[in-house]
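ligand=zinc ion
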Amino acid sequence: MMNQEIKTTPTVKNGGRLFRNDVIFIVALLLVVSALGLCFYFFRGEGDKVVVTVDGKEFGTYSLAEDVKVEIRTGAQNEEVNVLVIRDGLAYMETATCPDGICADHKPISREGESIVCLPHKVVITVYATEEEDAPDIVV
Amino acid sequence: MKKRIVRCLLIVIMLLQSMGMVGCKTKTEKYSTYSFDYFDTVTTITGYAESQEEFDEIAEGVLAELAEYHKLFTIYHRYEGLENLCTVNETVDGEHRTVTVDRRIIDMLLYAREMYDKTDGTVNIAMGSVLSVWHDYRTEGIDEPWSAKLPPMEKLTEAAKHTDINQMVIDEAACTVTLTDPAMKLDVGAIAKGYAVEMAARSLEEKGISGYVINVGGNVRTVGVKGDGENWLVGIENPEEDGGQAYLAYLELSGESLVTSGSYQRYYVVDGKRYHHIIDPETLFPSEGYVSVSVVCKSSADGDALSTALFCMEFEEGLALVESLPDAEAMWVLPDGTKKESSGFANYKKETTK
Ligand SMILES: [Zn+2]
């Protein structure tokens, strides 16, 4: 222990400069860490998702990459229906029994933050595109 | 040797820390919640918090405040033991009562009067009689689309005789409001949402909270910047499915409001034609000049009132109004897709390929 301490003291005395080995060690460590970071960055997302909420509570989550048709039934007797369709990476309300039909008029969505709202049925469909760069926080 | 390794590790950690990759800085995550309970629209609260619990507590506080304003400002519901705009609009034996109301109602009405003057009468909360005719026809038309009708002009012009804002008498000291024209009604639809959002946002600011966005039916108010210190990126949806631009504009906000009034937000269909909800006080019909008007300014109350006013104004006139206000900017979208902007609107725009 004592020996080692004595060995390292000179570096500090030499203006505190680092040995070449130190630099190599630091660079290697940085490389390892950033490689890990990159892996983490690329594999963190499960892909683009469509989240459906009814009156603020989550109804279901669907992958934007898989074609699917979802019947969103709401109301006391499940008598209110919105049909969500995901096709070719686009999500849209195919039909809805709501009186105003505004949700079914809405264009298909696919980008982070975009949503379709059915006010009468309290249904919100939102896209979470995890890997989109410069994605908006809010879309209005 | 051991000491050397420790020293190297320390240097690496310091380097990483300066790059923001590791550290004791507490990590915040983005949360959001929806509600359908206020102002007949959807409310979204988005925020950065350290935990779901922390977010829920703040979001619930905001929702509770919005709930109070909703109860005070609604003209469609009365609540046991509460005087609100619904009871102000009521008549007893053909006359309006002098109603003692919550101070917050007085403050909002005074603000509305101020905006009436600023917009040369385009934003007029005394238009209730006209708007209620439209409201009834729209509601019926939505419920029974096969028999959807437009209100007859005679009905609208008759109602328009009772829209003089000077017949709204306010006694500030006594906190009372009286409508002296028995046929007049208040409708604060062009102001209430934005006003309530602004009040809720200021409450957060007073508590030193930042990193939140309150969005009530397109009345967006950012509170501070994001959790990571970056500006909020806000896209204004392109309602057209033209395959081109996803957003009409892509903005960077840090504490400002963005309010969009759009013809596509609420409408009903008569004989295959859409009739939206923003009624021009001159023509008494939905204004047809624009697809949407977006306003960026500090206060969401100003944004709400201004976007409604600009929607009903000629472009030149509206532009002059915006340029006369120190901190307001606007973007108009015309039916042919043309976009026009006030001089400083571009300052908020972020370059993007989207
Ligand atoms: Zn719907």
